[in-house]
Design a protein that fits this description.
This protein folds into two domains: about 170 residues, no CATH class; about 120 residues, no CATH class. The protein contains 13 helices and three strands; from the N terminus they run ααααβααββααααααα. The radius of gyration is 44 Å and the shape is elongated. The two termini are about 55 Å apart.
């Protein structure tokens, strides 16, 4: 059957269905569609045989995997967030600052007094002894003051970090840096000192130096999150590579793209039939639609693995599947009517019988796919029986004693 013949056939079927639906007269619908189905089936069977000589089979299965993406949540809340109640340096920093700054003042005062005294007395020895004692003391006091000031500043930042954490078991370094007006590098070093001094007893910083994690549970959860990210990225790369590979194959062999599109259309149609089946209450029609769904799934599954069957299948499905959907939807609308009059019951019965015809047509289409395989099996069986007979191994040979 040529493309033009299929086009005319399709228009004829559409016209039959449209006229039946518009006029709500379904009496001749089954008969008319049965005639066109039978003629089309004959052409399909012939076309399948022609297609085997023209189209070659490519072993490529299109994976319709859904981005079974691994959805892993960032560290779940609430988690323990242990922090020191009395951070290191809280008291000692004040003591060092007091001693340091007092010592600096005291040393400076004594040095000034000694200088005045030496100027009056002129005793260089006394001045040397005094300087030998006071200058080291001044240096120690300066060290105490600077250390205490730094420690006090760290304590203040610790409390600011805790305030910014607000009970969370994790936080980004960038957030902490913003809260104290420092850069990320400074904050990382600052946090490491606090962790070593026990301000964050179980605290850790991730390998990328981007997160502070305050507990072992938070760290374990973060590790799982990172693993989820890695798995998701790996899966995304794999899917991207698969899509690119599929695109290259489809560019080299356009029939693969046609197969993919046919499968997608088929799945959408099957889903519509399933939805209609769930909405329709009748048991008889439900069984027919269940059967139709099974047959269609088998057809698309076969075509997905045997692309040489695509051309004739697309032509056949392109006309009958839309018609089937239109009839199913019409039945669904009539079944939803609260009052089931004679005309509605008659139309529904006619559509039910038509579905039998359509199921028969699709079953024959599916069966035609296995015609060559059945012939090959039959040939193999004949050859095997012949070989067994030649060797005297058949049941007949045993019954006759091999004579």
């Amino acid at each position: 059957m040529s493309k033009n013949d299929y086009s005319n056939l399709g228009e004829e079927i559409k016209s039959i269905v449209k006229e039946a639906i518009n006029s709500t007269d379904f009496k001749q619908l089954n008969k008319n569609i049965s005639n066109t189905v039978n003629s089309a089936l004959e052409e399909v069977k012939k076309g399948v045989q022609r297609g085997k000589a023209v189209w070659y089979e490519t072993s490529a299965r299109i994976d319709d995997e859904e981005e079974t993406e691994t959805e892993t949540q960032v560290v779940e809340r609430p988690l323990r967030a242990p922090v020191a109640k009395s951070p290191a340096g809280k008291i000692s920093s004040i003591i060092m600052m007091v001693l340091g700054y007092f010592g600096i003042g005291f040393s400076a005062f004594v040095l000034a007094a000694v200088g005045i005294a030496v100027g009056i007395s002129g005793s260089l020895i006394a001045m040397g002894v005094s300087m030998g004692v006071l200058i080291p003391l001044l240096i120690i006091c300066i060290i105490l003051a600077v250390t205490g000031t730094k420690s006090r500043g760290r304590v203040k930042r610790f409390y600011e970090y805790v305030r910014t954490l607000n009970g969370q078991a994790y936080i980004s370094v960038k957030q902490l840096a913003s809260s104290v007006g420092k850069n990320d590098k400074f904050v990382v070093k600052d946090l490491l000192r606090m962790i070593r001094s026990g301000m964050f007893p179980e605290g850790r910083i991730n390998d990328e130096k981007t997160y502070l994690l305050l507990s072992d549970e938070a760290y374990d959860a973060y590790e799982k999150y990172e693993e989820g990210v890695r798995l998701r990225e790996r899966e995304e790369r794999r899917l991207k590579e698969e899509v690119e590979r599929q695109q290259r194959m489809e560019a080299q062999n356009p029939i693969l793209k046609e197969t993919r599109l046919l499968i997608e259309e088929g799945k959408e149609s099957i889903e519509q039939i399933r939805e209609a089946n769930e909405a329709i209450s009748g048991e008889v029609i439900s069984q027919k639609l269940d059967r139709l769904e099974v047959i269609l799934c088998k057809i698309f599954e076969y075509v997905e693995n045997h692309t040489d069957e695509l051309p004739e299948t697309r032509k056949f499905m392109g006309y009958y599947l839309p018609t089937t959907l239109k009839l199913v939807n019409a039945y669904r609308e009539m079944d939803a009517e609260p009052i089931q009059g004679e005309n509605i019951r008659s139309a529904k019965h006619e559509i039910e019988e038509t579905l039998d015809t359509i199921n028969y047509a699709f079953e024959n289409l599916l069966d035609s796919f296995y015609q060559d395989k059945a012939m090959d099996i039959s040939t193999d069986i004949t050859v095997l029986e012949t070989m067994l007979a030649q060797e005297g191994l058949t049941e007949k040979d045993f019954n006759t004693g091999g004579k």
